[in-house]
């Protein structure tokens, strides 16, 4: 089957600031990919480009062989690092909002996920803790029937128990015909779910490897390799 995502020589600058340099990358279907890098390395920029929210300064991006645009936006579900829900909403309003906005939203799956996440439909979004809010955002993003899910820091700033629950939900609810890219710098907690990892540093792709290969070839965990690549 052809690739879900292909980036070809992508550059992105903000004014004078170079955020991404010459990124070439492809991702096959059914993969969970860790997009790893320290703060400011360009992870969010890369996700926004793939989601079609930003345009590259040069280079091409294709999702299932189609250039990024209206058609690919329907194939990509993006969970940004800041919540998309409004403070006035209850959990059920957030679900209704997504259902109305996205034709591919699977309400039954959303309810099953809410249950798994211990979220209550009558809860007010503004009263949710950070961890519960991340669970809600993840429920919304994964309940779309997309081909590519982009999760920007889904476990940022939540405690280890909440992290575990969020990771379990990702593994349980993700559809194996799709691919998932998860950005994080909290590598230790999350590496168990990755098939492969992509390391970016100061906008450059410095390593891309199967997790299994890291273990077999280098005898290292992703976390050990991360610390080596990003040593200051
Ligand atoms: N709108 C913008 N205008 C100018 N510079 C920006 C803008 N957005 C990002 N940058 C810069 O581009 C670089 C990459 O930022 P980006 O947010 O993609 O990194 P990141 O890896 O997601 O970081 P973090 O882990 O801290 O979220 C940083 O140096 C950042 O300051």
TrEMBL record:
The keyword Coiled coil does not apply. SMART domains: AAA. InterPro entries: AAA+_ATPase, ABC_transporter-like_ATP-bd, P-loop_NTPase. SUPFAM superfamilies: P-loop containing nucleoside triphosphate hydrolases (SSF52540). PROSITE patterns: ABC_TRANSPORTER_2. It comes from the Bacteria. Keywords: ATP-binding, Nucleotide-binding. Signal peptide: none annotated. GO terms for molecular function: ATP binding. Residues 5-227 form the ABC transporter domain. This is ABC-2 type transport system ATP-binding protein. It comes from Paenibacillus xylanexedens.
